[in-house]
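Here's a chain:
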Amino acid sequence: MVLGHTSIPAFFSNWIWSFHMPFFFFVAGLTLTTKKYSSFIQYLKHKLQTFLIPFLVFSIINLLLKAWCDSENLLECVLTVAKTGWGGIALWFIPVLFLSELSFFYFEKIRNRCVQITVTILFFVIGWLFCIYGIQFPWSLSTFFVGAAFLFTGNLLNQQYVGRLILYCSKPKTAGFIGLSLLVSGTVISHFWRLDLCSNSVNPIIPLFIGAICGIGFIVIISYHISAIDTISNILKYCGRNSFIILAFSQIFMISIIHLLGHRLFFVRYILMWLLLIVIIEIINRKMPFIMGKK
């Protein structure tokens, strides 16, 4: 996601965009469960605590930085975001994920797998129809159906099937062949069609869905094999644990750095962005864990 919003070659950017946001929904579906919640209200309270508080705090910081970078009146900036949402800023994703996870409470109650698959396809079709007919809601909420469908897809495939893929690709030669096939397939699809979940640009839905699954599968295989390297594994785990914070601030930090330094010195800008991210991650985790709904 971070790379997708930086100045990289178009073919690489298009490939990353083909799966980077679906990946968040997909992984949520892999790990999400509602079984420990006795009612929807209890589940809703938990989601409000883990989504609403950090979203509000992160939005305030983003608003301050956005107003500074755009030389815009803060009140006007607040009113614009309140009316239309975050637009291209990555925080658009949080309300959509919040609603998708709420819908999952009822999706998981469906015991018939065929019905679950039908509901997932129906959500994809509704999202695609929204795209075809140009139906847009504030706060990127027109993306809800496709986002929820990717979340449901992750749940349907679940950890068992992803585990089988990893087991099957445990041998380097097999992993290389399947990984390369997924990479090439995803790259070719992204060359012809660009997926943009923020604006619900999901037409044509079938090749874009295939491209997203190819990208997700490739990342799963690569992650498994590089996880054997302790240093890389620890870095990835750190990013994974703090993905919400990274998602919320990486883009606005880069915009702020460009505002100061201009578009030159790409690697310097990138290093500065990660240093700022690490600083705010450590401050939140060590001094203000309540922001993330932790005690």
